[in-house]
Write a structure and sequence with these properties.
The structure is a homodimer of 196-residue chains. Chain A has 196 residues and is mostly helical. Chain A has 2 domains: 44 residues, Orthogonal Bundle (Arc Repressor Mutant, subunit A); 138 residues, Tetracycline Repressor, domain 2. Chain A is built from 9 helices and no strands. In chain A, helix 4 packs antiparallel against helix 9. The first copy, chain A, is elongated. Chains A and B meet through helix 7, helix 8 and helix 9 of A and helix 7, helix 8 and helix 9 of B. The structure holds a DNA duplex (16 and 16 nucleotides).
Chain lengths: 196, 196
DNA sequence: CCTACCGATCGGTAGG
DNA sequence: CCTACCGATCGGTAGG
């Protein structure tokens, strides 16, 4: 019965979600069909529904997995003894590495979360808002203690979070510059511009 | 016969494309249906096809209108007498203002251009690549003449182009900060970090 | 896990 | 510009 390929101890559901993540990233959530997904996994479309409840459930798994990863890292960094600049740099580096290590997941969550339906849509929307507020808070503390240039904190958050998406173009074009070097360049440009 | 609302001397096709631009931005190109569009315009779905040839033709108009705007501005700036930093700042400001003044258009082109089919897909892809190379060229000249910090030029382009997309979140949340002030903050953070 | 199938909706056309 | 409609495809279910 176990026709779904089952490498590295993954459950069938995990295999489906993994394949879907890649498919959603490549074609977009709406344009990727369950029949495409079934083919990628190696079963008939109807068989997918023995492991998942709906197409949207897959999107939910992807979006909240990403949201949880960022929230947990933010917990750690806020509890750390790093300076304000150090905390910001640490979060920036985490975002960059998430783009490298979990590219498909991060891109799908960022681009397709609007296709969630309530209550997941509101929940995700609110988490996103709260997360940005936390990051702005870290920056504001840096401004208060003189580490960071006095600029609008929410604007810095906007710039940082979106700048990291540039890695998509890099990922796609396979430029000559290496991942490690790209990370250092991004940190250099974005963090150095913040110092007061 | 002219049932399509025709404010400010727009042709029917222009009215359709304008409504479609908003709809595509709100729901995504794939998720927005021609029946939705027909309703927004105030006609039956079949009637749209007297003015346009296909759903994709609308997407083509949107994408290449945006691409042309950026290319033309780049022509002007490259031909100007501005310093290298001045040229980069000028292009950055143009991107920011395009986000403010033509938000739907810019977002759709950026998010949905992959749904074009060949030869438009390859054409757009190539224009995008060439445009980024031109921007990187401006920055590289700035590095050569000592105006700009010595960092990887393509990385700076990636950061600048994507950072500007942060205006989407601002647009959506209607934060307290004004458009003009957001522009100055972005320029301050992104351009000041470049100076050598 | 598959065969067989459903109702809904899609982009688009014929003909007036 | 509309009515009427097409074939294709969608997400998902029944039943085994």
């Amino acid at each position: 019965m176990a026709k779904i390929k089952n490498k590295h101890n993954a459950t069938k559901k995990e295999v489906i979600v993994e394949a879907a993540t890649r498919l959603f990233r490549e074609r977009g959530f709406k344009a990727a069909s369950m029949r495409d997904l079934a083919e990628a996994v190696g079963v008939e479309a109807a068989s997918l529904y023995n492991h998942i409840q709906s197409k949207e459930e897959i999107l939910q798994e992807i979006c909240f997995k990403v949201a949880n990863a960022f929230n947990e890292q933010c917990d750690k960094v806020e509890a750390s003894e790093l300076s304000s600049i150090g905390k910001i740099e640490s979060m920036l580096r985490f975002h960059i590495r998430m783009m490298f290590d979990h590219f498909d997941m991060v891109m799908v969550a960022d681009r397709d979360w609007k296709h969630l339906s309530d209550p997941f849509l509101s929940n995700y929307h609110e988490q996103r808002r709260a997360y940005r507020k936390r990051l702005a808070g870290i920056i504001e503390r840096g401004i208060d203690n003189g580490e960071v240039k006095d600029v609008d904190a929410p604007t810095i958050v906007l710039i940082m979070l979106h700048a990291v998406n540039g890695i998509e173009s890099w990922h796609r074009s396979k430029e000559k510059i290496g991942a490690r070097q790209l990370e250092e360049n991004m940190v250099l440009i974005l963090i150095d511009g913040l110092r007061s």
